[in-house]
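Instructor's aside before we start: the two examples that follow are unrelated to each other. I chose them only because their records fit on one page, so don't look for a connection. First example below.
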Amino acid sequence: MNVKLLNPLTLAYMGDAVLDQHVREYIVLKLQSKPNRLHQVSKQYVSAKSQAQTLEYLISNDWFTEEELNVLRRGRNAKSYTKAKNTDVQTYRKSSALEAVIGFLYLDHQHARLEELLQTIVEIVNER
């Protein structure tokens, strides 16, 4: 299967799960706290606003390869028929674009690059 041909919102769906799992593992091991506290902390990493800010930072630092930029564009421009919750459409599209790249890397078995991206996302959020 050619992962590049998948719908970008499908890639974003997968990327959302991958990012969420990575962040949960990170904060559980770091905080060793109660679930409510863990949930509050995880929102700092996985909210649409945080993802959009992270994406802007990564783009401004030329972090992505040309292939990943193509996935980003497709993810950002995809027409979603669900309404964005707690954010504006532009922020939602940026977060979907970042999730699409994560989903692409995961499904394309680019594990080293995926791990590099996930660790970079955590570092960027931690610096805020």
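Example two begins here.
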Amino acid sequence: MDRDDSESTTSLEEENTENFCDNPTRDTLAEGLMGLFKPAIDQLDEKVRATRVSQLELKEQLDRLHDELRKIQETQTTPPELDGYVKKLINVKHKVTVVTNVLQGAQDRLNRLHQQVDREKLRRKTLQSVSFCTFRYL
């Protein structure tokens, strides 16, 4: 009877320990994957930021060029044929705006991914401290 009681107590302790503790192999694997993906995500995030900055600079330059061409066209008594070029600039400006919007969406997704990684790290840290405390009291 003692033997059954000790076996049932051990299995209950193991059951409770599994409820509070994570599988160390799974945690190690998850941390390894997070360590593997985080640098790539950070690098991608930095490149998206740099691309967005260059896209904004290009848009500003196109706006300035557009304004300058309009001024030239207004000052000329016989305006040069700039309509075709202005239309091309407007098309390029539209494309830059589209690319900027796509990059903004990618940036937002990357930011959400960063938040999820941070939450997961905090959750794991909390679970580790809870499981350490639970293990000490068992």
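Residues 1-20 have pLDDT under 50 and may be disordered.
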